């Protein structure tokens, strides 16, 4: 890695690192769109939190929308896995071990959220009309489908601490980097802390676990996406940091 500090090798690194920054911006944008569709828009059309029969009917009538929403989640998760690597590459000059720890937190968060998504997909099986389900009454099946969706909502919330810690670390690294704006680091750290706070509130004081806390991630996430797409990173400062990094 010491070759990074050698000017003769800079042409080799310059397009690669900036390309990583642009790709990161594209994947962030794709993740926002797919995640917003699959995790917010579609569930809002399908789930009636206090009416199992209405929820079941929505799943039957809007089955294609449900499946498109699940596909949106798969796209988002795929982007998140790739982003774990790309953000590690971009932030490792600041502190390699912390950047790697953030990547681990992010991957674990994505894996656990994927497990929670099984409960989101389960109603399509419960309400699918398979012969072995005839031992249940229609009302029981509707109740099981809604229970599964509520387990999905709880499961996706109680693991937010992993996403939150990943972004607290990344926010700190961005703040310290010198090749990305400090205000982005501050906003992303605050967003990560909001995820952690909401997670603890959901476990310790559910009545105060407002989902609005998660909105604090939007400003930093959107601004980072735009910054990477439009400006990228300061390559010369990235190279300087990489050359002197002791990690």
| Termini gap | 11 Å
What's the average pLDDT? 89
The string of secondary-structure elements, in order, is HHHHHHHHH
Q: Which range does the strand content fall in?
A: under 5%
Task: Tell me what the structure shows.
The chain has 247 residues and is mainly alpha-helical. The chain has one domain (2-244). Helix content is 78%, strand content 0%. It contains nine helices and no strands. The chain has helices at 10-46, 52-61, 63-91, 96-126, 138-157, 160-177, 182-204, 217-230, 235-244. Helix 2 crosses helix 5 and helix 6 packs antiparallel against helix 7 (182-204). The model is unreliable at 1-14 (pLDDT under 50).
Short characterization:
With 247 residues, the protein is an all-alpha fold. It has helices at residues 10-46, 52-61, 63-91, 96-126, 138-157, 160-177, 182-204, 217-230, 235-244.
What are the defining features of this structure?
elongated; disordered N terminus; mainly alpha; 247 residues; single chain; 0% strand
Topology:
Layout: H1 10-46, H2 52-61, H3 63-91, H4 96-126, H5 138-157, H6 160-177, H7 182-204, H8 217-230, H9 235-244
Helix pairs in contact: 1-3, 1-8, 2-5, 3-4, 4-5, 4-6, 6-7, 7-8
């Amino acid at each position: 890695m010491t070759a990074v500090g050698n000017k003769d090798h800079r042409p080799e690194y310059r397009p690669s690192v900036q390309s990583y920054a642009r790709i990161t911006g594209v994947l962030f944008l794709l993740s926002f769109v797919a995640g917003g569709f699959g995790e917010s828009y579609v569930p809002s059309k399908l789930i009636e939190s206090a009416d199992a029969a209405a929820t079941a009917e929505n799943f039957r009538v809007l089955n294609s929308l449900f499946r498109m929403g699940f596909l949106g989640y798969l796209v988002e998760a795929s982007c998140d896995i790739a982003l774990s690597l790309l953000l590690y590459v971009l932030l490792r000059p600041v502190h390699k071990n912390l950047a790697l720890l953030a990547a681990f937190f992010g991957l674990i968060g994505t894996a656990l959220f994927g497990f929670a998504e099984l409960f989101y997909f389960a109603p399509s099986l419960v309400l699918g009309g398979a012969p072995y389900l005839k031992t249940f009454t229609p009302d029981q099946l509707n109740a099981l489908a809604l229970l599964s969706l509520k387990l999905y909502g709880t499961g996706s919330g109680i693991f937010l601490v992993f996403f939150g810690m990943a972004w607290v670390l990344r926010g700190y690294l961005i703040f310290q980097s010198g090749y990305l704006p400090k205000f982005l680091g501050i906003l992303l750290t605050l967003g990560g802390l909001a995820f952690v706070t909401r997670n603890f509130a959901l476990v310790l004081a559910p009545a105060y676990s407002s989902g609005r806390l998660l909105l604090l991630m939007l400003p930093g996430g959107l601004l980072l996406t735009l910054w990477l797409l439009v400006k990228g990173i300061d390559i010369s400062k990235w190279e300087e940091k990489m050359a002197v990094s002791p990690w």
